[in-house]
TrEMBL record, chains A, B:
Residues 12-233, 290-514 form the Polyphosphate kinase-2-related domain. The lineage of its organism: Bacteria, Bacillati, Bacillota, Clostridia, Lachnospirales. It holds the Pfam family PPK2. GO terms for molecular function: kinase activity. This is Polyphosphate kinase 2 (PPK2 family). Residues 241-254 have a biased composition (Basic and acidic residues). It comes from Murimonas intestini.
Length: 515, 515
């Protein structure tokens, strides 16, 4: 989930002050509403050392009534705590209804610092993850709102911040030996964090990644996220209470139900300033190859791919290649260059259209299971199960619960594929809006390509921004170490096709070396 | 979950015919309703070899319209199937909406036969369980009804049935070498089954244990359970559809909502014939000791316990002893005899009354977490977290969802305690209704004991049958290898106190030997 994060996000001080002035009173008001509605709230801060947890927690609590929250700083277990199950100290700190508990580091210590320091043995990791997930699920089922923030900075930035702290006598003590050890082994420790994010990102307690290089940006993003989640929960609890009151009355229903959605604070800010982890917009679409470069590379790569394809078959390794992207993003062309060099008995291209009646009558993942490749075969999906969190989400073909649950369902499915031995790669074919328009028009002009463009394509284009938001969220929540997303910069078709081929070849070669 | 099952359950042929004649048309009608409401149904049969899966599935499908269901017999993977992730062959067999898929053995093979045969390596078990649970959860979330039956017979009965099959040339082929190997290592294989039941008994896909010694009894219990679950689901789906229709109308609500509960078929049979796994009623309450026997045993045991208590302290082993039972069942007396011989610095008795305001404002397990013992200490709970699935269930202090979810929550909590090193034992103090009345009256007659009896105690007594049903279900769902329930036959107080002491001493001594 971290791989795709753009750490260059920034906000000016003046802008920051302006936005915070409007957010602070909202957060205060929401705290009072949660108190009145008896909603317990748990806010967890995790992230790299010196990523600013302390400072940001301080900014979060400024607008809050101090009688209604408590901050817990979690370090190593005391002797007293070591004598009890590891969740004991967290269970006993869970908030009373209507109160907010803020954790500066948390139960995740067990699978992070304690794992790194070998306090948690590897054999205990599976247990620890199951126990953590069960703990959060129980609390969420019991009505708790759970927000989890992960503060992300680069290794270089961390080193810089540690140096500033160490250079000052007053603050040097704050950098521990453990901090320096983790700084030294930053990449190794990052892998543990990534695994933690992947395994514990659930619909009942999702992670929000915070780009924490710039503190103003981070503070605004955190507070906005808290406001958004509390607004949703308050609306949900109120709706339930009203429904219950309605039932109790059992007289004729009140015609003016307050089903109006609360005005979203986040959207207000979003208009002026993007708080999203924008992945797509940071793709460099100027990347390109000339026709000559393309031809040369293509020939060489297709030759290698042909050999690797038969290696795959001999070694019985299944491969799943998933293609998503904007309409006219170049999926078809890339798939064609890939399959041209492959033995047709060893691959299948599975186009995904709107589900037919039989498919609609099953679980949404069922139809993709039909086409899971055999060992040694390559299954290429032209559009995929990700429809659930894109078109189905945006067009309202499934409920909010359903698409929010889908991230974990999809991750579980891909984990199962990877765990059974498959190479799983997902491509997002990225083009910009102008390029799309150009391609649409080209297709309209060529009679034998005109069928590729429908009215629906033009309609989808109008929802570009909505799609972009959904895709960004999808890329973060489902880019895993075992099934990564690859953004293919596609304005130049030559470049895109080569990148797809290179990525597939790299992945296969890496696997071949493993065993 | 198997340990407490009473395998002596039987039903006469005549009774069976009568009941089946009334059940069959109901099942047929429910199948049609599920088809119309587009509810997909998954029914899984697992259990020991020769426990009658084939015969019972045959009886289940008799009343069904053959166009609406399919039976899948699951044996080892074909070559084709081996080349795909292990869930692939099950995903592709999931039923279309409105249809019923019946599995004669299932995905559980992976953690049962394949585990026994070492086809599934131990290192893969954790993955397999997580993948199975995720699979069932996804299907349940997607609207599938999932029923799982486990057919239980004794080792002896299995041997007898195999012999009958082997003695006949026509049927001998049905007993495989694998069957005979598992028969030989029945107890070892049973442990794997028990672990499987414990780890996969969830609120969205619960197990029903079927006493399968008597085929008539088993058939009726299975069909009743299917009817009950489908009735519930049909009612739930209809209620949702009505609510949706209601919303759409958005005119004044229809005052006669059909919120009437469907008449339960199971209750009808239950009146005439108990289908419950009755654990409490099979306790032998005639067990007793004379006063002289009691005194002698008590002295000896208390002496041993005193020594063991300091051993526990030295070895830093925490102990959790949970006491539940009927009012006046003798909890207090048994706890007193236990603590008399213990160092007061090393134990605490935690009485559990109705929750206070602070406790009510937290998760229901929170208050018990406060009293989790330190390593080396003994925590005794006089009434416990099991209130959730007894009094709170029966008095409606929590919702059906909440108490059904609680079995897993409680099992998870106890697993966490046990996994952190604690000995966990749960006692159910069993007396009969007459004995309770006698004790109530005695207490009323003795001024210094009168406070122990309240009007509520007399009221609870009237709900004896409801409690017994809830307790039986609780005992099955939460008796685990890591935290077993011990039924204490308590009509004779002397006997009960000695059994409690003996059980605790046994458990500690066993642990001492382990390391």
């Amino acid at each position: 989930m971290l791989e795709k994060i753009d750490l260059s996000k920034k906000m000016g001080k003046k802008e920051y002050r302006q936005i915070m002035d409007s957010l602070a009173p909202k957060l205060g008001a929401l705290q009072r509403e949660c108190r009145d509605l008896k909603i317990p709230v748990i806010i967890v801060f995790e992230g790299f050392g010196a990523s600013g947890k302390g400072t940001l927690i301080n900014q979060l609590i400024q607008p809050l009534d101090p009688r209604g929250f408590q901050v817990f700083a979690i370090s190593g277990e005391s002797q007293e705590e070591q004598m009890r199950p590891f969740l004991w100290r967290f269970w006993t700190k869970t908030p009373e209804n209507g109160r907010i508990a803020i954790f500066d580091r948390s139960w995740y210590r067990r699978v992070l610092v304690d794992r790194f320091d070998k306090v948690t043995p590897d054999a205990q990791l599976g247990y620890a993850y199951n126990e953590i997930i069960s703990f959060e699920q129980q609390l969420a089922d019991g009505g708790n709102v759970i927000l989890k923030f992960f503060l992300d900075i680069t290794k270089k930035e961390q080193a810089k911040r540690y140096k500033v702290l160490l250079d000052n006598k007053e603050t040097a003590w704050r950098v521990t030996e453990g901090d320096l050890k983790r700084q030294k082994h930053f990449d190794e420790y990052k892998v543990m964090n990534e695994e933690m994010l992947q395994r514990t990102d659930t619909d009942f307690a999702p992670w929000t990644i915070i780009e924490a290089m710039d503190r103003e940006y981070a503070a605004v993003k955190i507070i906005s996220a808290v406001i958004k989640r509390l607004e949703e929960k308050v609306a949900e609890v109120k709706a339930k209470e009203e429904a219950r009151a309605e039932e109790k009355k059992s007289e004729n229903a009140d015609p003016q139900k307050s089903t109006a959605k609360p005005e979203s604070t986040e959207e207000g800010i979003q208009d002026k300033f993007s708080l999203r982890s924008s992945i797509l917009s940071s793709a460099d679409l100027s990347l390109s190859y000339t026709k000559a470069e393309y031809k040369e590379k293509l020939k060489e790569l297709q030759g290698r791919m042909a050999v690797l394809h038969s290696d795959l078959y001999r070694r019985r390794i299944p491969v799943v290649l998933a293609f998503e992207g904007w309409d006219a993003g170049g999926k078809g062309g890339a798939i064609k260059r890939l399959t041209e060099c492959m033995d047709p008995r060893g691959y299948a291209v599975n186009p995904t259209a709107a589900p037919n009646d039989i498919e609609k009558a099953h679980h949404y993942l069922w139809r993709f299971w039909q086409n899971v490749p055999k060992a040694g075969h390559v299954a290429i999906f032209d559009r995929t199960w990700y429809g659930r969190v894109m078109v189905e989400r945006i067009e309202g073909f499934c409920t909010t619960d359903e698409w929010q649950r889908a991230y974990k369902e999809i991750n579980d499915m891909e984990a199962h594929l990877a765990h059974s031995g498959a190479i799983v790669i997902k491509f997002w074919m990225q083009i910009d809006k102008d390029e799309q328009e150009k391609r649409f028009k080209e297709r309209m002009a060529i009679p034998e390509k005109r069928w590729k463009i429908t009215d629906e394509d033009w309609r989808n284009r109008e929802k570009w921004d909505q799609y972009e938001e959904a895709v960004d969220e999808m890329l973060i929540r489902t880019s895993t170490t075992y099934a990564p997303w690859v953004i293919v910069e596609g304005n130049c078709k030559y470049y895109a096709r080569i990148k797809v081929l290179e990525t597939v070849i790299d992945a296969i070669e890496t696997r071949m070396k493993q065993k």
